[in-house]
Amino acid sequence: MEFLSVISSSVWFAMGGAFSIKLLELAELHKLPAVERPDLKDWVYWVPFVVLPILGGGLAYVYVSSDTFLSPILAVNVGVSAPLMLRAMAQASPLEKSVVNTPEGA
Questions:
Q1: 7-37 tens-digit pLDDT
Q2: What DSSP letter does each residue of 46-89 carry, written as one string?
Q3: Rounded distance between C-alpha atoms, residue 77 and residue 36, angstroms
Q4: Is the pTM of this model over 0.85?
Q5: Every domain of the chain and the residues it spans
Q6: What gap in Å lies between CA 64 and CA 72, rounded to an integer?
């Protein structure tokens, strides 16, 4: 339990921000037709409820570790936007290198 007390409050706020996004998605499920609703008994559906707060808290930890002050509202913003930022960074540098073949004389 000592580990939990060492974590900065900014990290907790960021984790809460990321978790709140998933709760909002869950709250909006009633608007979907019954056939389009996910199977809530499937454990795979609940994985993002664990992974996204870890990503949000991890990004806030990187900020705090680099001596950046995160106010509570900024930490929540980091947590909310962490999945989007990480997805954008992953798509910006793809793992596969693409080769472009240009015709002669082009």
A1: 788 999 999 999 999 999 999 999 999 889 8
A2: HHHHHHHHHHHHHHHHHHHHTT----HHHHHHHHHHHHHHHHHH
A3: 30
A4: no
A5: 2-92
A6: 12
